[in-house]
Known about the structure:
This protein is mainly α and 175 residues long.
Amino acid sequence: MNMYAGVLLLNCTNFGAFVILCSFMRIPVLRAAFTGNLDSLRIYGEIFMTILKSQSSKIHSYLTKCAYPIETYIFEAAASMFANNFALDTTEKLWDIIMENPELMMMRVGVAVFKAMEKAVLDKSKEEIIMMTKYPHRTLNEEALFKAISKTTIKQKDYDSVKDKILSRMNSTAT
């Protein structure tokens, strides 16, 4: 959370940074990541993997085969998109994209990153993939990142359908 505050304070007034941080906590996927809510992170991880499967079955199969625990690393992936690794101007562009529709766009950017890194990921171990997730700037430059994002589309209705199916299945198994 400190890195987000730092980036915001570089670009906003103190009050503006506070308002934006509060707004982050209203975004369910970020709230789950910031609070470490494992149940919610599992749900978002499953949503992500389902969407990734529809976008790139090859990389989905590989991540599944090597038992990549997306729910464990979804926070690092989110942090990478918001502040951790990219140059400040790249981070600001990502924020603009993600804040348009946070849940949907986080999934879109995440899928785009994996699709863009597909060739590099497919021969790596789980540990190497985890490092690539935490530090995507080592594999992707800004141009490749935004090109991948522009080529990746996820419709709101498709996202909602996947999320509803997963939540419905989880609710039915909980009762």
